[in-house]
Design brief:
- The protein is built from two helices and two strands; from the N terminus they run αββα.
- By secondary structure, it is of the alpha+beta class.
Length: 86
């Protein structure tokens, strides 16, 4: 046991890591299944651009762009509220 932590805290850290590893494993397996089931190639049209990509890749890019936009807006909202407080 780690002498720097109070009694029982080692066990809590270990349980947190176990839960996170299991969740990451489940998400990884689901992502792999999703990719294998959506390997079809499709032509994607956006504005003046056209390219061919796997359905899974197009959805992954869409998800990543949406996540980035959401994080950016949340960051800007926090900065705006911090400026109002000062």
């Amino acid at each position: 046991m780690n002498d720097d932590l109070p009694d029982g805290e080692d066990l809590q850290i270990s349980e947190d890591w176990n839960w996170k590893l299991i969740a990451a494993g489940v998400v990884g397996v689901l992502a792999l299944i999703f990719m294998l089931q959506n390997r079809q190639q499709r032509t994607i049209h956006f504005l003046f651009f056209e390219w061919t990509a796997g359905v899974w890749f197009a959805l992954l890019v869409t998800f990543a762009l949406g996540l980035a936009a959401g994080l950016l807006l949340a960051h800007l909202r926090v900065r705006r509220s911090e400026r109002k407080e000062h």
